Amino acid sequence: MQKRCCFALMIAFSVSFLMAPAAQEIVTADKFLAQVGDVYNSIKDYQARLKISSGKNDMEGTIIYRAPNLIRMDFSVPQEQVIVYNGEVLMVYLPEYRAILRQEVAGESKSTGATFASSQGLVLLRRNYLPAYQTGPDPVPLDDKNPTPVVKLVLTRRNVSEGFREIRLSVEPQSKLIYRIEARTVADELIIFNFSNIVLNQGIPEGRFAYDAPASANVYNNFLFKSSN
Predict the structure, then answer these.
(1) Which of 59, 72, 163, 171 could anchor a disulfide with 52, C-beta 3.0 to 4.6 Å?
(2) Is residue 118 included in any domain, yes or no?
């Protein structure tokens, strides 16, 4: 009887040992980034507070997004500055210069209107950058001042034609929402995007992406590149 019990325990131990690796599936950085993309692909709209830091310059405001490619940013710093993309035209209002920068976007370049923190932006990141964990798959504090747990990814460009040499994403592991993006340009300039107070799927109407700039502002068309139309 004792031998049978020992034999049964050995079998049970062996089975549990063999099944343990299958129960703890390893999530690679690429798979984790794909999960983040799946979450953003399911988002119909979102609103968040946005802070952009570049060198000594800070910009703060609110960003709203409506799938698939409507984006609007209203800034409090600089006050009254607005960036709007309606899927066809990118428009930037610079109140300091009473100027409207207007760019028509056509063809495949339309996808550039999507921010990194959108379904289209994440598709481009997975296509053009190679992801890896910065410190591993386990959550770590966002920074020394913010204890919010995040998973940190480092994305390195697959070819030299990309405008950013490296991109770092800080992702809340449960919601899979991006809280911070750190993008380093080829000129070694660091641009940081911080997202907070994120609200999802509240039914943002399309009309909120319409923008009537001041009539006194000067309009500068195709300030980035010439339109193909």
Answers:
(1) 59
(2) yes
How many distinct structural domains can be found in the chain?
1
Q: What is the pLDDT of residues 59-84, one digit of tens each?
A: 999 999 999 889 999 999 999 999 99
Under the banding of pLDDT at 50, 70 and 90, the label for residue 126 is: confident
Instruction: Establish if 14 belongs to a structural domain.
Output: no
Say how far apart CA 196 and CA 47 lie, in whole Å.
9
Number of H helices and number of E strands within the chain? 3, 13
Whether residue 8 lies inside any domain: the answer is no
DSSP state of 181: E
CA distance 205 to 44: 11
Q: Which DSSP symbol is given to 139?
A: -
Whole-number CA gyration radius for the chain: 23
**Residue range of the domain that includes 212:** 26-221
How far apart are alpha carbons 222 and 188 in whole angstroms?
Answer: 27
Which of 12 and 226 is assigned the larger pLDDT?
226
Which residues does 158 contact at the CB level (< 8 Å), separation at least 6? 128, 129, 130
Average pLDDT across the chain, whole number = 84
Task: Identify the bridge partners of residue 25 per DSSP, sorted by sequence position.
Answer: none
In this structure, is residue 19 part of a structural domain? no
